[in-house]
Design brief:
heterodimer, A: alpha+beta, 5-stranded mixed sheet, 13 helices, about 10% strand, B: alpha/beta, globular
């Protein structure tokens, strides 16, 4: 608790430590509900993700996977205003995750980079391919009645155990080889080819903005490179 | 005799609501409070409607919003693609360019008609009479006499909504999103950004001197 940077409205533990299936090497995932936009940060093995309550409620009403994760598995570390209860009340269970999967495989062209481009943003691209694979796996698994967000359970259910190594490599190595292996797995998983028709990432983002909000947000994050730009920023852009 | 005016809040690319609103206003002089482009689906059509109003109406006033400034800054290379996209410019680019291919800035510059660029560049920072001042971002209550562009077009002055605010003129602005979809009207401060083109809110007009609202 001392590691958390105030202020916060609530602190929720989620992921393997909340489910009780953590291993020695597992990270500790914490959601910090903040009054204003705040960048995520890490302290040792703790990954602290920050959202405002408004953002979470909006995602809850859209039936987002992240809020489902919280609603089904999170444990309050500090929740004096009952944020978790509010999320549970607001959460709308989607009929299926087809739309999520469509958005995710529509992001494939974001991964169409060659070696020199990869080196400019190895961290961003490694995180991106990992995020896309994990989201696609979760969406597919919940369409097949998965019981929890445990990745081991999801991979068992889908018969995709080899994703474990692929995700672990891309996360720990941040190398071009690990990225390319993960991209190939993503293509196989989704049945798409990660090829961008447009000559620039900017042009892809413009075209994607007609139908794929996720591709816009992730594309802009890639463009931002190391500079601060988060999903939340676009959601709550000032009009 | 006081001149009859209609102040019109943020439009943000929603040409349908703009047309409907204009159809409900009588022949009085129009004062548009800026933010004609970005976010909504049809910024080019909005600019066309405004240009048509300019030729029909009795000397209408078109004020700058921060989004007109952003579009012009993106075109001239002063604002990056990332910054303009972050502000809601993607829909504007798409609606002018259609399908983007490569260099988005050049493609937009080639696609946007010169008349639109001239129209946007010719907007004014504020409109003022003895009784009122109108600008996109209102005025800074700490410096109520200041008419500096950065303050009254690009600034942000949430303290004008304070309940104990005392100003020596009516202040009429847009910019500050009223999530209730109703205009703000207290203590001589009027804010007409009711979410048109952004959160599917109506376009709003304030009729002066009656101080009544129209929405469409």
């Amino acid at each position: 608790m001392e590691a958390v940077r105030p202020p916060f409205k609530a602190l929720l533990l989620y992921g393997s430590h909340a489910r009780g299936d953590a291993q020695e090497t597992s990270d500790i995932d914490i959601l910090q509900v903040t009054p204003t936009h705040t960048e995520p940060y890490a302290v040792g093995r703790m990954n602290i993700t920050c959202y405002t309550l408004d953002q979470l409620l909006r995602l809850a009403r859209k039936g987002g996977l992240f809020v489902r994760h919280l609603v089904e598995e999170a444990l309050p570390l500090a929740d004096p205003h009952n944020v978790l209860g509010a999320l549970k009340s607001a959460y709308v269970h989607p009929l299926d995750y087809h739309a999520v999967k469509r958005e995710v495989y529509g992001c494939g062209p974001l991964l169409d980079v060659a070696g020199p481009q990869f080196k400019k943003n190895a961290d961003g691209l490694s995180s991106l391919v990992s995020y896309l694979i994990r989201t696609y796996l979760y969406a597919t698994a919940f369409d097949r009645r998965a019981k929890s967000f445990s990745m081991a359970h999801v991979l068992d259910l889908l018969g995709q155990q080899r994703a474990n190594n692929i995700l672990s490599n891309v996360r720990s190595q941040r190398s071009l080889a690990a990225f390319e292996a993960a991209r190939a797995f993503f293509e196989e998983l989704t049945g798409t080819i990660c090829q961008r028709k447009e000559g620039s990432l900017e042009a892809f983002i413009v075209n994607a903005s007609a139908h794929n909000e996720l591709a816009v947000i992730l594309g802009l994050r890639l463009l931002a490179g190391g500079r601060p730009f988060t999903y939340d920023a676009l959601l709550d852009v000032e009009f | 005799m006081v001149e009859k005016l209609a102040f019109i809040g943020d439009i943000h690319g929603d040409s349908v609501r703009l047309s409907a609103l204009l159809g409900n206003i009588d022949s009085r002089r129009l004062v548009f409070l800026g933010d004609y482009v970005d976010h909504g689906p049809n910024s080019p059509e909005v600019v066309e409607i405004l240009m048509a109003a300019a030729s029909r109406n009795n000397n209408p006033v078109f004020l700058f919003g921060n989004h007109e400034v952003a579009l012009l800054a993106f075109l001239s290379g002063k604002l990056s693609f990332l910054e303009y996209a972050w502000m809601g410019g993607l829909s504007t680019i798409r609606s002018y360019v259609g399908k983007a291919n490569d260099d988005v800035r050049s493609e937009l510059a080639a696609a946007i008609p010169a008349s639109h660029r001239e129209f946007l560049s010719s907007c004014k920072p504020f409109f003022e009479t003895d009784q009122l001042v109108a600008s996109h971002a209102g005025i800074n209550p700490a410096f109520p006499e200041s008419r500096e562009f950065e303050g009254i077009v690009l600034g942000r002055h949430p303290s004008i909504f304070d309940s104990d605010i005392k100003l020596n003129k009516l202040v009429i602005c847009g910019h500050y999103l009223q999530t209730t979809l109703r205009p703000f009207a207290e203590n001589g401060v009027y804010c007409l950004n009711t979410g048109c083109g952004t959160i599917e809110g109506p376009a709003t007009a304030l009729l002066y001197p009656e101080m009544t609202f129209l929405q469409a």
